[in-house]
Amino acid sequence: MNLNSRKDIFSFFIQYISKILDFVSNHIAANDISEKILLDFESWTRDILKENQSNIYYGVQQATANTIKNLISNLSDSYTDIEVKDFKYILSGLFDEIIIYLSNIDKEEWNKYMIERYLFNTATSGSQIIEMIKVHNQSHTMKDNEMSIIYYQILSFGYMGKYRFEKVKYR
């Protein structure tokens, strides 16, 4: 995918975040997440495209972080604080990986504006999320089915975390 223009970057951005939001609205606390969030997100993307900000990365970072925060705030009544924090972390890591590794935008520049760094002041989701999946798989109970769906979904989006550049040996 060639992302050379502002329009291309936002088209790419909207495509993947829309998938994340669709997944969340369909599978995670569907009763708690209103259609208004999706409409607000669409409205936000239109506003960003009109603004002609001088720093596209900063604009994407701020707006994405706010979208994730708003989305997660609607889950707080149904989930524990740890689950809400984990979900926010997973969305942040997934979005950063999509931008950094699955697009042709300036990776060095985006590293300065990572969503994970902005929301959590860390840059370890590549290994941390993989570890979260391993721990989850070892201690999985029926109660954890929603987290299983989240982990499966991020992997199906192409999330590879720390394994992105490692050669995987198949048996």
Number of strands: 0
Structural class: mainly alpha
Number of spatially distinct domains: 1
Count of helical regions:
8
Query: Remind me, CATH topology?
Result: Serine Threonine Protein Phosphatase 5, Tetratricopeptide repeat
C-alpha Rg (nearest Å): 16 Å
Level of helix content?
A: 55-70%
Distance between the termini: 32 Å
Biggest beta sheet attributes: none
Tell me, what is the CATH class?
Answer: Mainly Alpha
Q: Which strand-content bin applies to the residues?
A: under 5%
Low-pLDDT residue spans: 1-6, 27-39, 48-54
Mean pLDDT: 67
Shape: globular
- Second rung of CATH, namely the architecture: Alpha Horseshoe
The secondary-structure element order is HHHHHHHH
Can you walk me through this structure?
The protein has 171 residues and is mostly helical. The protein has a single domain, classed as Serine Threonine Protein Phosphatase 5, Tetratricopeptide repeat (Alpha Horseshoe), CATH 1.25.40. The chain contains 8 helices and no strands. The chain has helices at 6-27, 35-51, 56-73, 81-101, 107-111, 115-120, 125-138, 145-156. It is globular and about 40 Å long.
